[in-house]
Fold these 2 entries.
Entry 1:
Amino acid sequence: MRGKGIPESVKEQVDEIIGRFNEESIGDPHRYYSARYRGNYLYLDRIEYGKAGSICRLKFNGKMDNWDFAIFKYSSDSYDPDEWFFPGSESVDGTVEGAMKAGLAAYP
């Protein structure tokens, strides 16, 4: 049975976290994270000079510090929740910010 998806209040919090991270950690108006939502999933893309690139997928588990992480693998054009051998994997801690830190290391 399909869930209701990520609540709007959580999406608003995520959007604030992403905006703050973009400003404080990336600091380039032409390079930033962007969110897409589908069901219980948050897809984090990074926009670089107008071109979007997939970075990772997070599954909402009901708490802001308990997201499941899956890195995007360009070699298979898919998200892989079992792949943990990549630069930045040590930053994955169940948070949106941790996922973005991991993404910056995996795809600089």
Entry 2:
Amino acid sequence: AFKEITKKEMPLIYREPAGSWSYRSLKIVQDMGYRTYFWSAAYMDFGENVSKAEALRQMMSMHHNGVIYLLHPKNKGNYLALSDFIDEMRKLGYTFATVDEIG
């Protein structure tokens, strides 16, 4: 589906489920040609009841150069806050890119 929509090959990017990893699993995915990335900012957003204001507060409190956020899609507050978060970060001079773009 990715290739059909984008007309590009999907980048070989891997994230360990739940951040649970081993040297063996990292080696296996590396041997398969994947690059592994981990998040550097996360908060307890597993449920559906985090508000937009709380999600924005949490995201703003954790920013740093090169940050990779772990945001769960089940949490409505995350996606409601995302546009405001992006606007605020751009005002602070940050830019956004996908992990395959930043290497």
